[in-house]
Amino acid sequence: MSKSRVFVIGASGNVGKATINALARNYGEKLDIRAGVRNPEKVAEFTSLQGVTVVRAEMGKRDELIEIFKDVDVLFIVVPGAVDRVELTRVTAEAAKEAGVKHILCLGSPTPNISIGKQMYDIEEIITNLGLNYTILRLPWFMDNYFAFKETIQKLSVVYDSVDPTKRFSAICMDDLGLAAAVVLSSPEKHAGKKYLLVSDRHSFKDLVKAFSEALGKDVKYIQQSYEEAKVVWMQKGVPEQSVDGLIEYWKEANAGKYEEGNDNDFAAITEKQPTSVAAWVQRYASVFK
Predict the structure, then answer these.
(1) Residue 37 in this model has a pLDDT that exceeds 90
(2) pLDDT for 1 beyond 70
(3) pLDDT attached to residue 217
(4) Dihedral of CA 234/235/236/239: which sign?
(5) Residue 253's domain spans which residues?
(6) Does residue 284 sit within a domain?
(7) Structural domains of the chain, count
(8) Residue 16 and residue 51: Cα distance in Å, rounded?
(9) Fewer CB within 10 Å, N or C, the chain?
(10) pLDDT in tens, 59-115
(11) 121 vs 110: CA distance, rounded Å
């Protein structure tokens, strides 16, 4: 019996890499795993992973993708950060349908009231109305964004951002996301028509600096900035202005208390494992911040 072929397009980014690693680690013997990237030389590490074949593939290239997606059973479209992400996803999904792909896994957002959330909502509409089996993984704030605080924690023992330090919000750990995506790709029939909200932990910046203080053995403080100050800092870190504006919209909603509570059970329901707490994440990567 031939192996099911799963294809991750956009596999060179953080989400794609986490998914490919989880697929290889857990299903490398059972699945034919394809990692679709624009520049295969950038993912040389994939060549040593069990069951993984790297394929040159670019979102939005309809005719090329129709050929590439032939014999693919399940496709994970890792929605890019590009301005034209909606159109790129639409063309890629339509190519998958024409090629005979049976199931599409795609990213979504739980925040339709902000600009990036509206784009992700449009993408969800495209996928759900395509006429194929689908699964949507809605993602909140990435816990791994805390790597951006490395320099100020190392030099000043400070975390700067624009959220009220007592306001809780949801976050997903990249490793948890990769595992959840891999589980869905390994048995898509169990998740057809489902829209999941993936949350590893719901915490505040007060919780975050407490975790850093305990893990690093020093007092790490939080200083709340204005939105304007935060925008300058994030753009200096190389984050595109459009993404920073979306981030600030998210923080405004967090400051309004809109993410204090919610359904945090979908990760465990998918994976039958407990998600990563912010304290556990900080402990895992503490050496990076020393």
Answers:
(1) yes
(2) no
(3) 97
(4) positive
(5) 144-169+201-260+276-288
(6) yes
(7) 2
(8) 15
(9) N
(10) 999 999 999 999 999 999 999 877 788 999 999 999 999 999 999 999 998 887 777
(11) 9
